Amino acid sequence: MKKLSFVLFISLCFVSFAAAQDIDKLPTITVTGTADIETAPDEVTFSLDVNKTDMDLQTAKRLSDETVGKILELTRRFQVKPQNVKTNAISVEMKYETIRDPKKKIYDEDGDEIGKRIFKGYEISKTVIVKLTDIARFEEFFEEALKTGITEVGKVSFETSKYREMRIEAREMAMKAARDKAAAMTAAVNQTIGKAIYIQEGIPSGDFTNGIGISANGNRGRSNNFKLDGQDNNDNKVIGSGSVTTTFAPGSIKVSSSVTIVFVLN
Fold this sequence. Notes:
Layout: H1 2-25, E1 28-39, E2 43-54, H2 57-77, E3 85-99, E4 116-132, H3 138-146, E5 152-159, H4 163-187, E6 193-201, E7 222-227, E8 230-231, E9 238-239, E10 253-265
Antiparallel strand pairs: 1-10, 2-4, 2-5, 3-4, 5-7, 6-10, 8-9
């Protein structure tokens, strides 16, 4: 049985190689079709960073937990589904500051001035990811999020829940564009196109005459970063947040597709 399977495998490889050789001999035309679809975003994802520092580790943890608790309470007020709220990127770090005293210099073993390291406290860092599916409440949620004591709005991504459908439509449009291009080019030399012998989503590189491949191409969303000027860890009030604006224009989301097709020439 093993010998028979091995012989069958060799035979299939030989047939595939022969088919590839036959394709190389055929008169063909290779074209690439592209298509873009745009839509208004209907979802927005926030990345909210919380960094709390204190000389006492438990105090730093308590401050961090309080702010995260306020964020979670805010998501409940805005009726955000639990599966659209995630806490990640949790870290604990000892923070130091280097002070150089010109009257009392400190050097390392290589003779370089390094100064004196002063322990500043324990820093607890957490990131809360929130997806808001009611984009009409973006500004309201953003303003309320700034009041929770967060350190930074690391990322805001405008997205669409219809991405999959748009990608399928863009791919079909790209396929049609490729076919129309091939038909127009061959008509100019009094020929027509036959069956397609190779299809690949995206623009391939190298030799692509003996297989069919599918890959993804598209842009799901757009992002903007917002950063607060500072924060008081004692009372969780934002300091100097006047530089942050909640006026926004999400624009549109573009989903693109490109398809490369090889047609036989008649």
